[in-house]
Amino acid sequence: MEPFFVWLETSSLSVWVRESPSLFAFPIILSLHTIGMGLVAGLSTAIALRILGLAPRVPLLELRRFFGLVWTAFWINAASGVLLLIAYPTKALTNPVFYLKLFFIAVAVWTFGAIRRLIFADPGLDFNPVHSRGRKLAAGMIFCWAGAITAGRLLAYTYSKLTSI
Amino acid sequence: MYEFQNWLIKTLLSVNVVRPFMTSKWGWPICESLHFLGLSLLIGTIGAFDLRLLGVGKRIPISALHRLIPWGVAGYALNVITGSMFLTTEPNQYILNPSFHLKLLFMTMAGLNILVFYTLYWRRVSLLGPGADTPLPAKAIGGISLFLWTGIIVFGRLLTFYRPGACGKNETATFLWTCFK
Known about the structure:
The structure holds 2 protein chains of 2 kinds. Chain A is an all-alpha fold. Helices cover 72% and strands 0% of the residues of chain A. Chain A contains 7 helices and no strands. In chain B, helix 3 (27-54) packs antiparallel against helix 5 (69-89) and helix 7 runs antiparallel to helix 8. The longest helix of chain B has 29 residues, at 98-126. The A-B interface holds A 23, 26-28, 30-31, 34-35, 37-39, 41-46, 49-50, 54-59, 61-63, 65-66, 69, 145-146, 149-150, 152-154, 156-157 and B 26, 29, 32-33, 36-37, 39-45, 47-48, 51, 56-61, 63-65, 67-68, 71, 130, 150, 153-154, 156-158, 161.
């Protein structure tokens, strides 16, 4: 992997994100990643809390209006995350916690999709109690987002090697 | 101003009771993780409410969505607690940091925005049923809230890049940068 890390870390994009004194390089990419995190994890947690029975008078079907924003924020984070990864590939890819973070994100996204297919496909949703499987999915999704956020934050403290160059 | 900041740093250091924990191996990282979880809870619930004020998901009655606000307040409380732990452990990293000044300014404005909302518009807005449009001032308050919380996140992240430091001989303080002797 080392030659690949060296090649990536000496690429102009990697150098720019990592070393540019511009506010629009690392600082703004990191800020976008945090705003996206708040929207993806936060909004889907709010939807999950409703599924779990909080705020029961909120019509579940109408919460679909927030799905588009959750996905938009998800793609902002995928893009900003790839840029951060290009800046510090050795730091992330040699740290097992990074793979744990990706695992939590993958399960959370799968759960979000499953909730949409299982719960939100039902047009009578607001007249029937939420399926118990839906509640389990909602609780699982909150857990996975919390895990992804914690693992992501701990990346700053658990890496063994910053760069290969 | 610098004397006041120095006094504030000393005072904050003297009221800190969590230093052994914060300087332990996992103290600071645990608090940072909690700070990010609180952030997400706040943005998810208060952000959804702001969006409803702006007209997203109009079929949701405002008062029904308001039941999620205590979760946002819990996230905020968590962040005030963890934030105070950071601040009193390393006060010079914040008190002399212009990004922290802007973060506090935005937090104050967000607080005033909330105050205006609850004193002037909450009664009227809370009675709105499904499908109802909010009055223009309520929309403005929702938009301002989203803008301010986004700014608070950005200035929080920029803290690292505007840590106060001693500027070199030929360096001059640029926007947001603090040099001290």
